[in-house]
Amino acid sequence: MDFGRLITAMVTPFNDQGEIHWEETARLIDYLIVEQKSETLVVSGTTGESPTLSDSEKVQLFEFTVKHAAGRCKIIAGTGSNNTAHSIHLTQEAERVGADGVLLVVPYYNKPSQEGMFKHFEVIAASTKLPVMLYNVPGRTVASLTAATTLRLAQIPNIIATKECASLEHVTLIAADAPEHFRVYTGDDASGLPALAVGAHGIVSVASHVIGAEMKTMIDSFVGGDPLQAAKIHQKLFPIFKGLFECPQPLPNPVAVKYALTMRGLNVGSVRLPLIAPTEEEQVYIRGLFN
């Protein structure tokens, strides 16, 4: 399974009542594929506000996105949690409705050992024929999957990738020793080009909602043998990479990118509690990133 080099972790559009806005979800999928050059979409990940989506909403999103994308891009379903049995259930539902793969986050809050995390991912992978992408994001989960454990998991045939947000050191160590079928993605937009330089295959991005086409050009320039051009694009986009998370103080994902999408005329709505919409000061800052 080739998920490409630019993957967008898609927001979930809501209407004024806080329900999933299906018409706008369809419009967003088209926009991300056609205008922002996304090769794969992650549905119901952190950026999609998975903690506040019910299981029913998640499965509906998986099915709706698969049907509307209609083969124009791959669809990865966010089915990970800190409950192994629950993750197996959602993973099997994602397979049933036709997803192309699943994203499994490191279990959060209960702080398992490395062996516990290995067994968690091992049994979920064994429950499905779908390709599995691991997701290591210690800033959110506290627990962190080591490079050594990731490389053990990479020996399982249908565990084919990782979204790595710990550090460039992790990206480097995993990319250096991973089997041929296993690909490393960074989940940090600001580290996208440096990660490619140390062996990452691509980026699972938030900023690609609004600057995906430029990011695709950056990636293609690097892969095509023009690192200087890629660096120029990275330098131009860097303030947006950083600003979407620091406006002007740290702002939870996906608050800023949802507001940025409304600036593009996409009615994706606000966020669900406990997240809140950006303040007026933050809105001014986000608008300034694109002026």
Task: Give a structural overview.
The chain is α/β, with parallel strands linked by helices. 46% of the residues lie in helices and 13% in strands. Strands 1-2-3-4-5-6-7-8 form an 8-stranded parallel β-barrel, surrounded by 5 helices. The longest helix has 17 residues, at 227-243. It is globular. The model has no long low-confidence stretch (mean pLDDT 97).
Keywords:
291 residues, alpha/beta, 46% helix, globular
Compute the CA-based radius of gyration.
18 Å
Number of helices: 12
The percent range for helix content is 40-55%
The biggest sheet, with number of strands, parallel, antiparallel or mixed sense and barrel status, is: 8 strands, parallel, barrel
Q: How are strands sequenced across the largest beta sheet? A: 1-2-3-4-5-6-7-8
Secondary structure: number of strands: 8
Q: Rough shape?
A: globular
Proportion of strand residues = 5-15%
Order of helices and strands: EHEHEHEHEHHEHEHEHHHH
* Coarse structural class: alpha/beta
Distance between the termini: 39 Å
Low-pLDDT residue spans: none
Mean pLDDT: 97
Describe what is shown at a glance:
The chain has 291 residues and is an alpha/beta fold.
Secondary-structure blueprint of this entry?
Elements: E1 6-9, H1 22-34, E2 40-43, H2 55-69, E3 74-78, H3 84-96, E4 101-105, H4 114-126, E5 132-136, H5 138-141, H6 147-153, E6 159-164, H7 168-177, E7 183-186, H8 192-197, E8 202-205, H9 208-223, H10 227-243, H11 255-263, H12 280-289
Parallel strand pairs: 1-2, 1-8, 2-3, 3-4, 4-5, 5-6, 6-7, 7-8
